[in-house]
Design brief:
Its main location: membrane. The protein has 590 residues and is of the alpha+beta class. The protein contains 16 helices and 19 strands. The strands form six sheets. The protein has a six-stranded antiparallel sheet, with no helix packed on it. It has a four-stranded mixed sheet with strand order 6-17-11-15. Strand 18 (410-415) and strand 19 form a beta hairpin. Helix 7 packs antiparallel against helix 8 and helix 10 (435-465) runs antiparallel to helix 12. It starts with 6 loop residues before the first strand and ends with a helix.
Length: 590
């Protein structure tokens, strides 16, 4: 079934309604959201669209609000399966009626609420539609056009779908690769509940739509008394503005606020549903808040159209604001900014170190190769799981940088002797001509035994108890999980080399300092964010490695004769300085 039309604005005299465009979607980052929202808001305020040249013989008209501030209004709330409503005498369709609601006045009596239970009809259970028809009128005036006292200038209304249509979720493609019957039964049940299909896991055919119930309907009356030019209404306000034709003035703007309505709060409507909760609210909203909601929705829609976020991430961002402590949220945003700054500084110093490095003495070349393999595995895993292109691009850049580091740690040659050119890697002389290569080989040898046992053990566990899309996905997910869980072991060869050489002067300490600060921030998040205990303990693994590095820096004194990361030694500089001073003394004596 096709998705329903957008909201419909209708004057009570039975005229045709205006279709209302509603922007949706959410973006990726809070900073981008606020920046785009504020920019669009002020742009709409100060930069109205260019007006067409008016006829000098006709004076320009400014549209104003037909209602006054504080003017009491009555409200009628109807539910109907038809998009157009004129059955005002049907008491069964009237769900809610309120009187003497002051317009655009911020008082307790301006907010009215109602909680009830709605019993769906058979048509609604079978992908039917249901609309909310809300009408407002000056107190004492009717909304029924057939009433003798009816006056079109005194009443207005809006229509809004209460049952929305969303595409069916994709079938779960994961399955037990060993053919576990219990797991297969669970997979089939999940597919039937989510998609209503059998165990065929191929998402072929046209997109199917199912109806969902909106448990919350919030009706906001916008506090807007702006005098708009008749042909110069801002484009973000024009779709919501309901103009009365005879006076060319506008009715109060009715906004159905679904900003905080999360998708997981929607209720799937099917034959098994017997009753549905419905929470209603009518309240005022300021012009600034209404426009901010609109601009944030539009900014998120832009991010989603660019592919910078996936579906569902918008609700997660909303949930942070809904369920999070405001003080904790402020601290989290501040700490996240620090994390980003330290991450950038660590990245900059890492590139700077390897760009200027002239000697591999004391450095583990094989750890650089292993880091590249780990980054490449993570990139393939993200590619297999339909990750957004921004995260893929970031991971791809990381893979390229790790490969560039291999070129700085080793000598790469292209072998064109065969039909297919191949890359050959050779150790640099500064790495192979001393004990560094020997100690690195010993560390990697014993480390590979431990890592191999961990990878094989976890892969067998994952194959036996977890579901995967294919054997390729199983290999990728197993390797990626091992990288995340046991990746800290990659730092151990460097610890062994430091121990055997009794020196740490060759390490990029600036980069490691920034990474250590980031690790401390991760420790803070481990206490703040709710997570399993095992994952919380795993956050502190890097702390142990960095503490060992700090201990080695304290235990092993700085060797002035050792070549640093730039290929210079402290003793060489002192010798050159001594020669220069001796020559100056000879000149003075002569």
């Amino acid at each position: 079934m096709a998705p329903p039309a957008s909201e419909t604005a209708a004057v009570v005299d039975g005229g045709d309604g205006q279709q209302q465009r509603q922007a949706g979607g959410f973006g990726q980052t809070i900073t981008g959201i606020i920046r785009i929202a504020v920019f669009c808001y002020f742009a709409s305020k100060f930069f109205s669209p260019k007006q067409k040249p008016s006829d000098p013989s006709k004076p320009s008209h400014l549209m104003s609000n037909l209602f006054q501030r504080g003017e009491p209004m009555d409200m009628w709330f109807y539910l109907s399966e038809h998009e157009k409503f004129n059955d005002f005498g049907n008491e069964g369709a009237l769900i809610w009626h309120e009187t003497n609601i002051p317009y655009a006045v911020w008082k307790p009596e301006s907010t009215r609420t109602l909680s009830m239970t709605y019993y769906p009809s058979e048509a609604l259970k079978n992908n039917g539609s249901l609309y909310a028809h809300v009408f407002f009128a000056r107190s004492g005036y009717p909304i029924d056009p057939s009433d003798p006292e009816y006056q079109p200038l005194n009443c207005f209304g809006r229509t809004h779908p209460v049952a929305t249509y969303l595409p069916k979720r994709k079938a779960d493609k994961k399955k037990s690769l060993l053919g576990n019957p219990k797991d297969s039964d669970e997979s089939n049940v999940e597919v039937e509940e989510v998609d209503g299909k059998d165990s065929d896991l191929k998402d072929e055919g046209p997109v199917e739509w199912v109806s969902y119930w909106k448990p919350n309907v919030t009706i906001n009356l916008v506090d807007d008394f702006t005098r708009y030019p008749q042909h110069g209404v801002p484009p973000n306000i024009d779709p919501y503005l309901l103009v009365e034709p005879s006076t060319v003035n506008y009715y109060p703007t009715v906004f159905f606020n679904e900003f905080w309505l999360l998708r997981d709060k929607l209720i799937l409507i099917n034959e098994t549903v017997s009753e549905l909760p419905l929470n209603l609210e009518v309240s005022p909203i300021s012009m600034t808040k209404w426009q901010l909601f609109q601009q944030i929705d539009q900014s998120f829609q832009i991010h989603r159209s660019y592919g910078s976020m996936l579906d569902g991430e918008s609700d997660e961002l909303k949930r942070v604001f809904l369920e999070g402590n405001p003080y904790l949220l402020g601290v989290t945003m501040f700490v996240s900014m620090l994390h980003s700054v330290f991450d950038f500084l660590a990245f900059k110093n890492d590139i700077q170190f390897w760009n200027k490095n002239k000697s591999m003495e004391g450095l583990s070349a094989k750890s650089v190769v292993l880091n590249f393999i780990c980054q490449f595995i993570i990139f393939l895993y993200l590619l297999d799981n339909d990750t957004s292109w921004m995260i893929l691009a970031s991971s791809g850049v990381g893979v390229c940088i790790e490969f560039w580091k291999i070129g700085k740690a080793m000598r790469i040659e292209v072998d064109r002797s065969g039909m297919i050119p191949r890359l050959r890697f050779h150790d640099r002389e500064s790495y192979a001509s001393n004990k560094t290569k020997e100690y690195d080989d010993i560390a990697i040898k014993f480390l590979s035994y431990v890592l191999l046992l961990l990878v094989v053990g976890f892969s067998i566990y994952s194959l036996a108890y977890e579901r995967h899309k294919s054997w390729y996905s199983w290999i990728l997910s197993s390797l990626t999980s091992c990288v995340y869980m046991f990746g800290f072991i990659m730092m151990c060869p460097q610890l062994f080399i430091n121990y055997k050489l009794k020196s740490v002067a060759h390490l990029p300490w600036r980069q490691m300092t920034y990474k250590f600060l980031n690790t401390i921030i991760d420790d803070l998040f481990a206490f703040v964010i709710k997570m399993p205990m095992l994952h919380r303990l795993s956050v502190f693994r890097d702390d142990v490695i960095f503490l060992i590095y700090l201990y080695q820096r304290w235990v092993y004194p700085v060797d002035k004769t050792r070549v640093n990361e730039f290929g210079f030694g402290g003793e060489d500089e002192s010798v050159d300085t001594k020669k220069i001073s001796d020559q100056e003394d000879d000149k003075k004596t002569n």
